[in-house]
Amino acid sequence: MDIKLLEDFVCLANLQNFTAAARERRVTQSAFSRRIKALEEWLGTVLINRERTSFELTPQGLLFVAEAEAILRRLFNAREAVRALGSSGES
Predict the structure, then answer these.
(1) Alpha helices, DSSP H only, in 16-58?
(2) CB neighbour class for 69 (10 Å; exposed up to 12, middle 13-18, buried from 19)
(3) pLDDT in tens, 5-14
(4) Numbers of helices and strands, H then E, in the chain
(5) What angle do CA 45, 19, 22 make, to 5 degrees?
């Protein structure tokens, strides 16, 4: 799984707009939509209710956005910890 898919989904959930999220992530809207669809396919569930005119996460999307944020936070914290250890000169 590509970490960018998690970042894309969190961005979309925060902005609640595909166009704005695609712009924020610096990709075309069609590419962004494909990436969100790829995440849904990987998870095996729908995250966005596309039948509504206003933006709405499905119950699965609401659950997953919290998990995705936690995963990203832990991943970036681990990266910083490893970098700090490496820069301290310890072997």
Answers:
(1) 18-25, 29-43
(2) middle
(3) 999 999 999 9
(4) 4, 0
(5) 75
Residue with token string 């005119």: 53
Q: Cα–Cα distance between 73 and 37 in angstroms, integer?
A: 23
Read off the tokens for 74. 């832990």
Query: Which among 9, 13, 14, 73 is positioned nearest to 43, based on CA atoms?
Result: 9
Residue 54 structure tokens: 């206003």
Residue-wise pLDDT tens digits, 49-64 = 999 889 999 999 999 9
Please tell me whether residue 42 adopts helix, strand or coil conformation.
Answer: helix
Tokens for 41? 């396919």
